[in-house]
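Proteins fold reproducibly. Next comes a concrete instance:

***
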Amino acid sequence: MFYFTPLYYNNQKNEQMKNTLTLVAAVLFTCTLFSQNFQGKATYKSKRKLDIKLDSTQVNSEMHSQMMEMLKKQFEKTYVLAFSKEESIYKEEEKLGTPQRPSGMEMVMINTGGSDILYKNIKENRYTNKNDVFGKVFLIKDHLEKLEWKLGSKTKNIGEYTCYQATLKREVEDIESRISFNADHEQDENTTPKMKEIKVTAWYTPEIPVSNGPGNYHGLPGLILEVNDGTETVICSKIVINSKDKSILKEPSKGKVVTKEKFETIIEKKMKEMDSRRRSSDGDHFEIIIGG
């Protein structure tokens, strides 16, 4: 009896080992180049894929087109991540004006995962999320979620940086299940939000050795320059390292301090109150709740 190992299998293993050694070498090399006091700024642009289908008897084609155009502009945003080796501040760049809503329709958009300012402390494994909703400022303080990344061997360039792929699977609320259009029918208050499993793909560069990234993403051996969850893509368009304009990574301190769980309870209660008032009023109502 003869035993043999296919040549392509050995080549595959060698290629994976080569990529792993290259990554380790890159991390060790770049760590010596960055001092403990270095700071940087990364600019990210986000886009969200929308596929919202509404009852044609309730929404005409013109109104639907206006609504989709408004939502598209709403989700195309620019963020800046100011970071050091241990801390970061992530916030949206200010933009002039707001998207025009379709006439005759009331729009309510709540992003429970968004923030005015998101402060992360990687060393202490915690975050503070300053969020202004319903005219009240909250400081959501909690531990950073442990993300179970699976490191891959694929690479690609983003700008001048070599990036490596990492993936994870997580369960999130199905956004489309939380979209309600109310004209003649009522929404069941006892409806449990639907959940779904998504695959998140990130691209990080060990050339910038910080375990950080846009939004709530972190935990990789290098700055995350791109992340895609199947619906939203966030990609870095500019990086500045150790510029003369040093950022002050100051943790937000003004607002009502709550945990993430408590904040979500408050949001849910407020939305039910708004829904109750809306039912007693006339007019079409379109509501989107984006989970974090």
